Fold this sequence. Notes:
133 residues, 3-stranded antiparallel β-sheet, alpha+beta
Amino acid sequence: MPPEIRYGEDVCVQCGMIISDERYAAGLVVETAPSTYAHRIFDDIGGMFVYAAEHRDNETIVSYFVHDYTSLAWIDAQTASFVSSQTVLTPMGFGLSAFEDSAAAQAMAEVWGGQILSFDDVQKAGISMPSMN
């Protein structure tokens, strides 16, 4: 089950900023004890991937959620198509947007001059926190 985020109030677990843009908000479900689960919420899709990589040895991640850029509905990140484009200004500068429909992702990649990535592609890319210079 995806997290409930209070936009303009809840804080990103990765960077500490207030989560305000639903298009880029993301969430993890982690198992904290047998049959006990908690959410980790993020203001940027890229922050979720960084957090997951940094905590893979000490947290059991059960599910990954992102918002479909077009409908804003929560979707399973593992089946989403991602567009990576530095022309898209996301909250932390990762430039990742998620789409449930691969054709919509392709269309936006062409508009934004971006690259289409799968969930596995994003994980393998080993993204890190962008420089804020």
